[in-house]
Write a structure and sequence with these properties.
Layout: E1 7-17, E2 20-26, E3 29-30, E4 35-39, H1 46-53, E5 61-66, E6 69-70, H2 75-79, E7 82-85, H3 97-108, H4 112-121, H5 137-149, E8 155-159, H6 167-184, E9 187-192, H7 195-198, E10 204-209, E11 212-218, H8 219-227, E12 231-236, H9 239-245, E13 252-254, E14 257-261, H10 265-277, E15 282-288, H11 292-301
Parallel strand pairs: 4-9, 4-10, 7-8, 8-9
Antiparallel strand pairs: 1-2, 1-3, 1-5, 5-6, 10-11, 12-14, 12-15, 13-14
Domain ABC transporter: 7-235
Organism: Flaviaesturariibacter amylovorans
Protein name: ATP-binding cassette domain-containing protein
Length: 304
């Protein structure tokens, strides 16, 4: 990958009104060739950020660079290299997949052959005379992505594309995103509030909450951050005495027993030896890493 990020924002901030600060100092780095998952609860600022990247909102504060160029100095050239799907796809229900693409073809300067290419890419090449209003939601979403692919973009931006999809549709979408990245060399920025789904397709992650970035890095880095939250679940014959004995492990007593922090299996064994050596019976010893969904919740509620 190139050293310079394909997308770089510096201090990106935005207000919809004097009293509502929607974004605060967003420094987004999207590496060329990556699948970047932009995550946050609904209303956290994801769509506002993506709209700023696409010039759909006027930038108020901070800088936006895409392909190494300042967006507002080179807007037309930059946007010609980007495909996007923001919010509800614009489809004509009475037209076929091919006819929908034909409506937009001249706008993007695409050839007729490109229509066949993108329909094959998204798996809609055999829909024939079936009109879009009879498509499943997953098919409609893939057709909307086909529209975004007409200009053969280097960068694809997808805002909450799995919203409303059933499990089969989500699996199809995941496979398509990976295919576009792997086989067509496309950098993809995809927003979602569903960490469990996004982690199955992305290489990099940014987590936003109330307009502020809470984490940014590789998926492996997020997993490493996750391991820092690992806890050991214990049930003993005397949880209060165990808590006092294990003070350096940041113990917490709950209704279901005792929870202590740990880093490795050697510490688990040492904890067990210490308790039994003091005559405390250990009924349950269950190491558990913080799952990614819980980590997501922790990150996005820490400053609530």
């Amino acid at each position: 990958m190139d050293q310079q990020p394909l997308i770089r924002t510096t201090g990106l901030s935005y207000r919809y009104s004097r009293d509502v600060q929607t974004l605060s100092g967003i420094n987004l780095h999207v590496e060329r060739g990556s699948i970047y998952g932009f995550l946050g609860p609904n209303g956290s600022g994801k769509t506002t950020t993506l709209s700023l990247l696409l010039g759909l909102l006027n930038n108020q504060a901070g800088d936006i660079e895409i392909f190494g160029q300042h967006l507002h100095r080179n807007r037309e050239a930059i946007l010609g290299r980007i495909g996007s799907l923001i919010e509800t796809p614009s489809l004509y229900g009475h037209l076929t997949a091919r006819e929908n693409l034909e409506v937009y073809r001249s706008t993007y300067g695409a050839s007729k052959a490109r229509i066949d290419e993108v329909l094959d890419i998204v798996g809609l090449g055999d829909t024939g005379r079936k009109v879009a209003k009879k498509f499943s939601l997953g098919m409609k979403q893939r057709l909307a992505i086909a529209l975004a692919l007409l200009p053969a973009p280097e960068l694809l931006i997808l805002d909450e594309p799995s919203n409303g999809l059933d499990p089969a549709g989500i699996i199809e979408l995941r496979a398509l995103v990976k295919k576009l990245n792997r086989e067509h060399g496309m950098t993809i920025l995809i927003s979602s509030h569903l960490l469990g789904e996004i982690e199955k397709m992305v290489s990099h992650v940014g987590i936003i909450y109330k307009g502020k970035m809470q984490f940014q890095g590789t998926l492996a880095g997020l997993h490493g951050f996750q391991r820092q939250g690992a806890r050991l679940h214990l049930r003993t014959s005397d949880n209060e005495a165990a808590r006092l004995l294990l003070g350096e492990y940041a113990p917490r007593v709950g209704a279901d027993g005792l929870h202590v922090a740990f880093e490795n299996n050697a510490q688990v064994a040492a904890i067990n030896r210490r308790l039994t050596g003091q005559g405390i019976d250990v009924f349950l010893l269950h190491p558990k890493e913080s799952d990614l969904e819980q980590l997501f919740i922790d990150l996005t509620t820490a400053h609530a």
